[in-house]
Amino acid sequence: MIDLLVAQVSNAWWYVAAAYIIIFGGVAFFVGSLSVRLRRARRELDQLS
Amino acid sequence: MSFWRQVFEIARKDLLVESRTAEVALMTAPFGAAALILIPLAIGTDAPLLSQLGPGLYWVVVLLFGMLVILRKSAVDGQPQRDLVRLLGIDPAATFAGATIATSLLVLFFEIALGPVLIALYNPELGSWPWLFVILPLVAAGMGMLGTIASGVTTSIGTRTSLTPLLIVPLSLPLLLGATQALEGLRLGRSIVPWLILLVSVDLALAVSGVLAARPLEEAVT
Amino acid sequence: MTTLRSRWLEILAIGVIGVSVLRSMTVEADVVQGDVQRIMYVHVPSAWLAFLAFGVTVFGSVAWLRTRDRRWDRLAASSAEIGVVFTGLAIAAGMIWARPVWGQFWTWEPRLVTTALLFFIYLGYLALRRAVIDPEQRARRSAIMGIVAFIQIPIVYESVNWWRSLHQTSSRSSIDTPLRITLLLGVVAFTFVYAVLLRRRLELARLEEELETRRFESSQDVAGAAITPPSLASVEQHD
Prior knowledge:
The structure holds 3 protein chains of 3 kinds.
Chain A (H helix, E strand, L loop, with lengths): L11 H37 L1
Chain B lengths: L2 H19 L1 H21 L3 H24 L8 H9 L4 H31 L9 H22 L6 H9 L4 H16 L4 H28 L2
Helix pairs in contact in B: 1-5, 2-3, 2-5, 3-5, 3-6, 3-8, 5-6, 5-9, 6-7, 6-8, 6-9, 8-9
Chain C lengths: L3 H23 L13 H28 L2 H33 L7 H22 L3 H31 L11 H42 L21
């Protein structure tokens, strides 16, 4: 299966776009969730002190 | 007490406690056998197909349902038992080895109990079957060690029955491949030495990790 | 508060990522696979980042066992979380790449199988961390599990490799220099991303630990603290 050579994939850019969106979307999501958790931790610390 | 005497006593204690409830013999083994009966009903009862798939399904059942052997009630020591073992000055490595031997023997028992079910229902071609006397103990030892390490790490955690299998299953892949490919090799009359080497090296690596982890783990179960 | 230095690192990371993506899009297409091959420039760096992260986790685990310094435990935990995220992303991008090239989302290739198992191994590691409440216990148990898992990973890989080699061989075509430079650039860019993420995650770990300590301290003097409840340790069933 790995040796199967595909000379031209007709809608190659769709696949490329999907992969890039998943990777960078995933990173953005992770950064966002980290920010939310950081903010929540800071707020709770402020409330305790 | 010498080291090996300690190992023996710990293993004997574990097996004695297990013999009171007989959880593996009366509950886990019948459960595994029931699974082997259900599978053909799901994938089809075609005799040649079952004969071909049987050994693989057997190993999947042994590995997955074997989790219940690892999680059995008698493998869990209460705080008083742990305190006592520590006060007696038992070497943590001996505790690990003893618990591993007990679990491995029970997994081996589980494997042997499911064997006749496999042969009766699936009629697999086994080739030179005496090799099973080497393969079955090697897999049982690997599962016993993985189980003892993972159980040590999950002691007294509320979700340990779900967490322990998650920790073990991905790491048990070499055992599954070694076991299934060795049986496949026997069926086709090929050399199974590479797969035996794989099983032995997994067991050795686990033995080293288990002994190394034993001392820090003992601190963990205070 | 964010210092100027942390901002610099983030700006630098975004810049390198920008250059890397631009180059991935404009570099000449692969002779064999065409434009789909451009997925490699994010897929391989993601996988690299994941392996780097798990390497750092093991390093942190060993360092904790030797020094018992909380910082190493925080490093191991933070890095493992980033590693799990990027393992998942690398697998997802790889499947999208595999679909047009191999005609299917998944093949039972050793690296793929091992990466998928890594995902579950470190999910288990994170689940273990969540399940243990006491910080000292958590650090010790997760360090042990992290190290034991790490010792097993090469064996997992070799076993799948061995198993595959009996069935089929995978051929790897060499790639041209401009493409290789682009890939290298991607790897560098993702390493910067790792540094930025790790920084943030470590900050979070530090805050959460502080929060844990503060909560513990503030729970010391509640009303009725003078009354000690009977010890349940001797009655409780440890399951």
